[in-house]
Predict the structure.
Amino acid sequence: MLDISPEEIAETLTMVTQQHLDIRTVTMGVSLSGCFGDDVGSVAGRVYERVTHAAERLVPVTEAIEREYGVPIVNARIAVTPVAAIAPPGAGDLTAIAESMDRAAREVGVDFIGGFSALVHKGIGAADKRLIESIPAALASTERVCSSVNVASTRAGINMDAVLRMAEAIKASAEATADHDGVACAKLVVFCNMVEDNPFMAGAVHGLGEADTVINVGISGPGVVRTVVEALPQDADLTAVAEAIKATSFKITRVGELVAREAARRLGVSMGIVDLSLAPTPAEGDSVAGIIEAIGVKRCGGPGTTTALALLNDAVKKGGAMGTSSIGGLSGAFIPVSEDAGMMRAVECGALTLDKLEAMTAVCSVGLDMIAIPGDTSAETIAAIISDACAIGVVNSKTTAARLIPAPGKSVGDTVEFGGLLGRAPVMAVSGWAGTGLVRRGGRVPAPLNSLRN
Amino acid sequence: MKTKAIVSALGEDRVGIVAAISGALAETGTNIEDIRQTILSGVFSMTMLVTVDEDVCSFEAVQKRLTQVAESLGMQITLQREDVFRFMHRV
């Protein structure tokens, strides 16, 4: 007996074929805890063996699920234990480990592998320092490796020494890939309150509290949500808008839950989480900015944007919470400028500025994401921008992050082109009144009080 | 292994659509359990609940056979596992 109506079947097919519903990523988390060694070469070899063995069937399994369920799975990816945690003793560069991760990713057919990472929110250990110093060379010499470093947390505050080091690493990474508009920076995220089960790149890592191997799934679907909002009557009030988004988010999340369960079952590993983030793509219509504008803001970035984004983000979580009991990862709308055609348009017409993106960070997921800035922006200015994003995360007990690209040789009015999912970004203006003295003081911004919250 | 799935077909109405699809399903050992079909403004729309017997013919092979039928009829025909619809539309 067919207990699903033809209308419901048609709705699902329309969501996939016309509204860009897809599963953005099936990410396998792989623990590297058995990969310790006496030198970089032996660690690199063990990492390669571990990753290629664990993820051998990841791509064929996700392809089979995509085919059988008729829902596109855009990416299969891998996240590993933060590499600083398995660095061998002694001094020296860790790029060889990144290169072995890159080879392993190519061998199993995934487009990105995350985890060339360190957590330094309270202090920088010797291995962490070596990892951060290795980032520019590691990202320039690899194609698929992503790096992320956590520099702040609500419980520890902001490690300003780490923030400045990361700003210098960003500058050096851009220079190391100057012939490609500083593309290495698109694979480098600086976090506050990093999560340990994020399936999305460039910030995916496999946390130390995770099982040996897990499957985490990142949903998508800005195009679907936008279509639903646009279909509402013009006079539908904001409660009705939230309700419509919730109902849609439930459906999107259920597909993510099904794919996560099925992938974990077929691979014989634990199911981790479903990340309820709306992740845009450069495809026309698949835009978070488009949803904000459909809710009623003339152009993303204009007054009302933060309100619309807050409503959207909350409704997505409320609907998604009914769809899965395994919510995790970042779970919030992404607003990456270069990866969202609506965001790009909003920057180009002057509606969306860096300052407004910082405000939006307070109510959504990773705020300052894929933003091209002038190549001559100083490390201190970049550090001050990162520290502002961190301050929002620390005080509000949420994840924030910055993925900034100081495009070499480019200035405001120019555009950088990365292609594919990374898209294209107009170079945005940066205030010339940065807190250079603030970041040069170094030390740690103390953790905030978690009571007396007014 | 038996797998429940949904066949959906959409396209211009013409003679022989049901015959071609059900013939392909019979060839592959796929059992039809329920059919709903309508024609709206000349557009033929059909959904079928079927059981694919993967001991007789793999899911992928049934999909390929239906793709051949879709191409010969000039229609859109999909075969998807049934649980994706159940998960999405039922709490």
Q: What stands out?
A: The two ends of chain B are 26 Å apart (CA to CA). Chain B touches chain A through 27 residues (CB under 8 Å). The helical segments of chain B are 17-27, 59-73, 83-89. The mean pLDDT of chain B is 94.
